[in-house]
Specification:
The structure holds three protein chains of three kinds. Helix content of chain A is 25%, strand content 34%. By secondary structure, chain A is an alpha+beta fold. In chain A, strands 6-7-8-3-9-10 form a six-stranded mixed sheet, with helices on both faces. Chain A has a five-stranded antiparallel sheet with strand order 13-12-11-14-20, with no helix packed on it. In chain A, strands 15-19-16-17-18 form a five-stranded antiparallel sheet, with no helix packed on it. In chain A, α2 crosses α3 and α2 runs parallel beside α4. Chain A is elongated. Chain B has one domain: MetI-like fold (Orthogonal Bundle), CATH 1.10.3720. Helices cover 76% and strands 0% of the residues of chain B. Chain B contains 13 helices and no strands. The longest helix of chain B has 33 residues. Chain C has two domains: 193 residues, D-Maltodextrin-Binding Protein, domain 2, CATH 3.40.190.10; 144 residues, 3-Layer(aba) Sandwich (D-Maltodextrin-Binding Protein, domain 2). In chain C, 44% of the residues lie in helices and 16% in strands. About 7% of the residues of chain C have low confidence. Classes of the chains: A alpha+beta, B mainly alpha, C alpha/beta. Chains in contact: A-B, B-C.
Chain lengths: 363, 282, 353
Amino acid sequence: MDVCLAGVRKSYGAVLAVRDLDLAIARGVFFSLLGPSGCGKTTTLRLIAGFELPSAGTVRIRGRDVTAVPPYRRDFSMVFQSFALFPHLSVADNVAFGLRMRRIGRAERALRVAEALRLVKLDGFAERYPKQLSGGQQQRVALARAIIVRPAVLLLDEPLGALDKALREEMQVELRQLQRTLGITTVFVTHDQEEALTLSDEVAVMRDGVIEQRGAPRTLYERPATEFVAGFLGASNFFDASVLAPDLVAIGPVRLPLAVPAPVGAALRLAVRPEKVRLAAAGGDGLPARIREIVYRGATTQIFLDSPCGPISAYIQNASPETAAWTIGDEVACAWAPESAVVLHSTPSRHKDTEQEARAEGE
Amino acid sequence: MRKLAGLALLLPPLLVFLGFFVGPLLYLFYVSLHASSQSELYGAGFTAANYAAILTDPFYRRILERTLATTLEILGLSLVIGYAAAFTIAGLPPRRRLFCLVLLLFPLMVSNVVRAYGWVALLGRRGVLSTALRDAGIIDRPLTILYTTDAVVIGLLTILLPYMIISIANALASIDRAYGEAAQALGAGPVRRFLHVTLPLSSPGIASGMLLVFLLTLSAYVTVTLLGGPQSKMLVSLVYDGVVAFDWPRAAALAFTLLAAALLAAAIILAALRPRRVAGRG
Amino acid sequence: MRRRDFLIAGGTALGAAPLAGIAPALAQGKPDKIVIMTWGGLWGDSLRQGVDTPFEKATGVTVLQDRGSSPVQRITKLKVSLDNQGFDLLQLHDGLYPLAVKQGVIEPINRNSPRLTNLKDVYPQFIHPDWVVQIFSAIGVTYNTKLVKNPPTSFADLWRPEFKGRIVLPEISHSIGTYIIPIGAMAEGKSPKDAETGFTMLKKMVELQPIWAKDTDTIMNSLRDEEAVVALLYKSQTYTVQGWGTPVKWVYPKEGAIAISWGTSIAKNTKHKELAETYLNLTLDPQGQTFFTKAFNYPGSNRKELALLSPELQERAKFSPDELAHLVELDHEFMSNERAAWTERWNRIVAGG
């Protein structure tokens, strides 16, 4: 494990920013901390860096206990949201800064700077100054500066937030390629769930200082553990259901099969992704609902319905033959494959690592 | 159209500046190129004799040396003391920082003359400091600081340190914390963080502080005269003496020498520190 | 078309109005004020009480005192306003009047003017072609009776080694700053115009590390604070220091005390010559001069003034006939011509060391 946080807690006065955090990140993994503002993801990153000291718990990097070690003696690099390129130094001097601090000689510095700039596709920019660069170029310089020192861990604090959409997507791809090439353990903080899902090997969704769920992007998306995770990653339909028989639940007036057996009489909270919802003519199997709104989105059509159990949304691929038939006001029946309904849990702590659970289920 | 409106807005203050500042300055330069006269403000006929005298006469050279030496001494002291104080103040919580800065401004709220006389009372042979030190047995002869360049340095430092401290403290406070953290992330400990990041990024504050101290020292007549006495006369004192003796051309020439020295110093400071390169951070 | 006519008519009317106002004023000729350039503080206040008030009562014209200019600045201001003189009267001390005359900023005194009635009672040596003395004093040696065991009796005594570091003298830019040169010459028994001896003596004085005072207040304060025990000071100011509780005494030096006087003159191209003469006359009024004696212990230039004073003040103010006879009148024209050169030379000896 390259990064290990055990029992970490961080409080500012009466406010608990991070509580009882246990985190282990393996070598070479691109790990994202995802969550809304104030969830503690940036604080966690800064705890790994050493810019914040934990109120309790330990931090280890490559097995070494660095809880009491100041940042400049920890083996990591960081790319800041504002890039923090030293304005009084040229691009080359910026990138070489870390090497200078490690007392690497001038000749070797020059070589490695050239190599780093080539990696981030900024050959020829060595003598420019930060204020002459565009946002994207500054980003790459910040990246070059961070990776040139070959750190054990690379920390990124919402580094793409300042870029426009097109540039951001381009940088996402480049960043991922770079990370794979170099194989550096990376911790990436973002509030953009799409970004996290795109880039990461593993994602941890945080809320109120705690990790609600952690796992591979696909797992988190297909098998959210809690309502919060389900709602944060993409859209979801939520239903209250009661168990009638081990394989049968009642959602409102309708009975639907259940994929995983559950104790009879239990009250469940189910989540169904809109793209898993299929519409059939009224009277068929499934929840009766009426179409409220139809939104055409190029590749998909989004259909919003009202049902006795609450609103439902369904996303349908326009390639499939279903869409053309529906209009607003139609009465339909909504159904889904039993495996598509995910049972949500209320307390996050018991189900942080659904990755293990999914494997156990034989998914 | 907007450009025209902007120019029109600029015109009145520009005219005032040209008419009441540049104009008289040019006239004064014109006066400096004449000989002295008892019956007129200046005599007839152009001559560069005044400037020649200032540049060649060993007496003027001595005064120039003394002026520059004292100014450099004050500059050095205010830089060292000022940066240390500013660094400490910038690290304080906002309310205490404000309190310290206001405290620093107190000496400036008193008139120059009153403050100088206060120093005379403190530093004189039978002044407060002398009496206190003698009573404590630290010295046995009366203090002879007054009427020397040392007294001038002390007196001017109290006025000028606040300028230096406030300039640097402001510059330090406006340095984004991220720079320091970035440096730390790259392996820079506290000392190297200061040398490679904090110090260079505070260079605008250092530059403006140095300029203020230098220019104010060159023109500080009251303190130099009251605390230094005639043995410590500086260039500015000679300008005053020239005016009182009704020798306008000589006084004007001395004044322009002072101005030239100030402009030269400003150019050197700005070239050495290059504060512009730090602009546009964020 | 109609609007334009209206504007033209209105503009003409507006333009004419102030002109219409001026004409009667010019015809009248009487201003609402006259301006005198003088010192502020106690002097200005005494002037206000002793001269301005009776003047305003007699003529109905107010007096505006310009207290903001140093003596040399007064000459400069008058010089640059010659084409449109805004000032009417000027007060200076004797040492500076030659410069004012040379620069051509004052009018000669018309001795036969019907308005200058007090002239006949003024001591003749105090009436100059271009100005008249209002009050006078003498420069001598002031010493601290408690701290100086062997009282000085002459200017030469200032050079005693025992006074090293304890003498206070006026600096060269002081109004009497140049006097140290003739004093040095006189101390050696030479003529006050012997500048060479004067400067040699100055060099000797510098070795005694005197305190050089920028103004008279500094001289007086140095005596009070006991920074200095001996000084070059006017007789009248010595009484002031005494009044502060310092035991000082003024000595009439063997070589002769140096006369110093302050007086009034009329600004060149003044617009109110008659009123200025009336004012000048009031500065010579014995009753008005008593205010200055009370404030400064200066005797007035009008011989009738002494009788109006209390016996105690008379004692302080007056000079004995013998003293008066031996008062040294410096050649102020000579010294004024030398001022710039002497300032340079003084600076080289004292400041260039």
